[in-house]
Amino acid sequence: MTETFDFGSPPKGGWAKLAPELLVSDLAVSRAFWIDVLGFGQAYQRPGFVYLERPEGGQIMLCDRSAKWETAELVPPFGRGVIIQVFVGDIEPELQRLSARAHPLYAQPREVWRRTGDRESGKREFVVQDPDGYLVLMAADLGERSPS
Fold first, then answer.
1. Contact call for residues 127 and 135 (beta carbons, < 8 A)
2. Residue 5: what pLDDT?
C-alpha cells in the first residue's frame, strides 16, 4: 500500500523568521501530539517530514531521524537543554486539551514577570514534554509593567 501525502501549501501566515526542526523517533506519533494536543495545524508534509503552524504564528518542523543531521548519539529524552516556547492567546484551552487527554504537565501553570530592559514583561505559562522528551513551554502574554 502506498502512503499518500498532503503536500499542502506554505504556512498561511508566511514563513516564520525562526522555525525549529525537531528530529523525532516516530513522525506519526509526534505529528499527532503537536496537532491534537498542542493545537498546531499542518501547513504541508512530504515523506518523513511535516511543517506545522499555529494561528498565532508559531511554526515548527518535525522530521524522521536520520544519521545525516545527528551530530552526536541521540538518546531519549531528545532536546536536552532546549525549551521551545510557543506563544498562544490563552493557556486555558491548551490546559483543557491536555487534561482531556490525561497528558501530564512537566511544570504547572504559573504567572511570571521578568525584567526586560527598563520594564517587566509578564506571561502565564506551563511546560509539557512531547513524545521524544522535547520541552515545550506554552505561554500567554500578560503585557508589561514598571519594575517593582
1. yes
2. 55
Q: Angle at Cα 60 formed by Cα 55 and Cα 64, nearest 5°? A: 140
CB within 8 A of 81, min separation 6: which ones?
A: none
Say whether pTM exceeds 0.70.
yes
Reported as a single tens digit per residue, the pLDDT across 107-144 is 999 999 999 989 999 999 999 999 999 999 999 999 99
HEC states along the chain?
CCCCCCCCCCCCCCCCCCCCEEEECCHHHHHHHHHHHCCCEEEEEECCEEEEECCCCCEEEEEECCHHHCCCCCCCCCCCCCEEEEEECCHHHHHHHHHHCCCCCCEEEEEEEEEECCEEEEEEEEEEECCCCCEEEEEEEEEEECCC
